[in-house]
UniProtKB/TrEMBL annotation:
<dbReference type="InterPro" id="IPR026444">
    <property type="entry name" value="Secre_tail"/>
</dbReference>
<dbReference type="InterPro" id="IPR039514">
    <property type="entry name" value="6GAL-like"/>
</dbReference>
<dbReference type="GO" id="GO:0004553">
    <property type="term" value="F:hydrolase activity, hydrolyzing O-glycosyl compounds"/>
</dbReference>
<dbReference type="Pfam" id="PF14587">
    <property type="entry name" value="Glyco_hydr_30_2"/>
</dbReference>
<feature type="domain" description="Endo-beta-1,6-galactanase-like">
    <location>
        <begin position="143"/>
        <end position="230"/>
    </location>
</feature>
<feature type="domain" description="Secretion system C-terminal sorting">
    <location>
        <begin position="527"/>
        <end position="599"/>
    </location>
</feature>
<dbReference type="InterPro" id="IPR013780">
    <property type="entry name" value="Glyco_hydro_b"/>
</dbReference>
<dbReference type="InterPro" id="IPR017853">
    <property type="entry name" value="GH"/>
</dbReference>
<keyword id="KW-0732">Signal</keyword>
<protein>
    <submittedName>
        <fullName>Por secretion system C-terminal sorting domain-containing protein</fullName>
    </submittedName>
</protein>
<dbReference type="Pfam" id="PF18962">
    <property type="entry name" value="Por_Secre_tail"/>
</dbReference>
<dbReference type="InterPro" id="IPR039743">
    <property type="entry name" value="6GAL/EXGAL"/>
</dbReference>
Length: 600
């Protein structure tokens, strides 16, 4: 989507050369973020696919929501281009001309009510995605905007300002906020199964390439005007009764821009910054250090960082290379770099389908701009297989734990009985590793999945079963010896009885201390149903600075929520806890409270 150059950074920590062995130490006592969503934006592919035959819609959405196991969807509130644009018919033909939801009256005095029928194609795709995710109970939808409607812009063009300047008309901040909130309210009412939870009003607002007559929607909006829009959004949310929807900002193109933008909002518009549920960035550019710095600064304000868009913008193969499929492995490395250093609890790709092999999970090989809605002929890219072996095992609800190697990441299941290690080798030579799992009990078995090489390699999220170092890996004394081939992604799914037992006494003592601090006169939360066999709903009296934690009776913490912004927290305990008795503790503005939870 973007024009920014991206440089790939190869190390967070030192990585061994091809003929040495690098030890990957996994430390479950070090816990980072718990994954909230793996996702993708629906613009532009949703606007394109929704016009195709139903069989194509079903096929593509199945690959996205089931095979790739994505649960976080970014639905685009299109601006709608000027039908009489001075720059002519200039939008891309692969779905980029997003329809708007309102039209200006012929006399120019205001605009009409929301008309969702304009966006029937994207809605058709979103409905199918929601139905596919319904059995999982984990779908999250974020509404996002790339530009105000053309009649709210200075240039009368939804692609950007003249010469790339700011393009929201002065005085139209409230109109823009009303547009976004009215569309969000209408779609939320019509489609409750989308689970619309967030709204992002901006898209790369710092960038100067949003110019009138360009090929896609975009709008430069700098911090002062961002703050005004955010304030107006908060006001309009109250009017439309959607104040529980979290506001997210500002989806800058690069990590460096996101850091500057977030700081400016925090320093100069604190109330607007305080009202945000998350700081979102794109990662078209930014080193691991840039990402770590952004996380450090944002986390000090008790907000999470989300990575909401990325892709191989202006990617070039390494010197002397001509194999463009390599970029899928570079993107896998970028995912790891983002998860490790931004500690992103949400990670999203830009396109699910494209006519370009490198930009999406699925390639449409029969793309014809003169017949855009024909039945699609599809080919899985390397990225779809890579996603399959990451998002299907490092699931929503799993927590990233300590891992000392920058080409890998490790996740822990909430009940501590499954460890998932993902390892990327985005280089031209094989690399040997020793995966140290000695802080887990009695590992006797594990599964290995690998995607490698190009389309002809025959390793497409393939399970490896031969217990050798170059295949499945060799397990000895809770360590796996493994050699990763060039251009590969490997996932190890390790079953374990749990963590080593040495910390049990201190954990129990810690729980006793926690319970002593509990003020039982405080009515902090209620939980229903209890007993339960799957989902619980925790209803809080106040969400301000509140965290919810779950302990087992040994005092071991099994779950910790982020700082909450909503008064209701829904947890699927089926994937997290086995049958038994647990302790839930909520701590917040109104004090702390514990309750017993029974899982059947």
């Amino acid at each position: 989507m973007k024009k920014a150059k991206h440089t790939f950074f190869i190390a967070l920590f030192s990585v061994g050369i091809s003929f040495s062995q690098t030890t990957i130490t996994n430390t479950p006592s070090i816990k980072y973020q718990t994954m909230k969503g793996w996702g993708v934006s629906l613009a532009w592919w949703g606007n394109l696919v929704g016009g195709m035959p139903q069989a194509s819609i079903d096929d593509i959405t199945n690959r996205v929501a089931i095979q790739a196991n994505l649960n976080f969807f970014r639905f685009n509130i299109g601006a709608g281009e000027n039908p009489n644009c001075p720059w002519g018919n200039h939008m891309r033909k692969d779905g980029a001309e997003m329809p708007g939801y309102r039209s200006i009256y012929p006399n120019g005095q205001g605009w009409g009510v929301v008309d969702v029928s304009n966006d029937y194609r994207q809605i058709a795709v979103m409905n199918k995605l929601a139905s596919l995710r319904a059995p999982y109970g984990d779908i999250i939808t974020e509404m996002f905007s790339t530009s105000p409607p053309y009649f709210m812009t200075r240039s009368s063009c939804a692609a950007g300002g003249v010469n790339g300047g700011e393009n929201l008309k002065p005085g139209y901040e409230d109109d823009f906020a009303d547009y976004l909130c009215s569309v969000t309210k209408t779609l939320r009412t019509a489609h409750p199964n989308w689970n619309i939870k967030y709204l992002e009003p901006f898209n790369e607002p710092y960038s100067d390439w949003w110019k009138a007559g360009a090929s896609q929607e975009g709008c430069k909006i700098l911090q002062n005007n961002q703050a005004t829009v955010l304030w107006r959004l908060w006001q309009r949310q109250q009017v439309y009764g959607i104040e529980d929807i979290g506001l997210v900002a500002s989806d800058c193109n690069t990590v460096q821009e996101a850091r500057t933008n977030a700081y400016e909002l925090w320093a100069n518009h604190f109330n607007e910054y305080k009202g945000l549920s998350a700081i979102a960035t794109h990662t078209y550019a930014g080193s691991w250090q840039n990402k770590a710095d952004l996380y450090t600064e944002v986390s000090r304000t008790n907000k999470p960082v989300w990575q909401t868009e990325t892709g191989p913008a202006d990617w070039s193969p390494p010197a002397g290379g001509e194999d463009w499929w390599w970029r899928h492995y570079d993107m896998a490395y970028r995912m790891i770099e983002d998860i490790r250093n931004l500690q992103s609890e949400v990670w999203c790709d830009w396109q699910a389908m494209s006519y370009d092999d490198g930009w999406a999970l699925v390639q449409q090989t029969n793309w014809d701009p003169n017949n855009p809605y024909q039945a699609a002929t599809l080919k899985n890219t390397r990225s779809l297989y890579i996603y399959q072996q990451i998002t299907n095992y490092a699931k929503v609800g799993y927590t990233q734990i300590g891992n000392n190697n920058g080409n890998s990441m490790t996740f822990l299941k909430p009940n501590n009985k499954e460890v998932v290690v993902v390892l990327v080798n985005n280089s031209t030579s094989s690399k040997s590793y020793l995966i140290d799992l000695t802080e887990f009990q009695n590992i006797s078995s594990f599964n290995t999945y690998r995607t490698s090489g190009d389309d002809n390699s025959c390793e497409n999220a393939t399970e490896l079963t031969t217990p050798t170092q170059t295949n499945k890996g060799k397990l000895e004394a809770n360590k796996i010896a493994y050699t990763a081939p060039a251009w590969s992604v490997t996932t190890f799914v390790v079953k374990t009885p749990g963590l080593v037992n040495t910390a049990k006494a201190s954990l129990t003592s810690n729980l006793e201390s926690e319970l002593k601090e509990d003020n039982i006169s405080n009515n902090v939360f209620s939980v229903y149903p209890n007993p339960t066999s799957d989902i619980i709903s925790i209803n809080l009296t106040s969400a301000e600075n509140t965290k919810v934690r779950i302990f087992n009776l040994n005092g071991q913490q099994l779950y910790e929520s982020p700082l909450l912004t909503n008064k209701q927290l829904v947890i699927n305990v089926k994937e997290m806890l086995s049958s038994g008795v647990y302790i839930i503790k909520a701590t917040g503005k109104n004090g702390s409270q514990t309750q017993k939870l029974i899982v059947k």
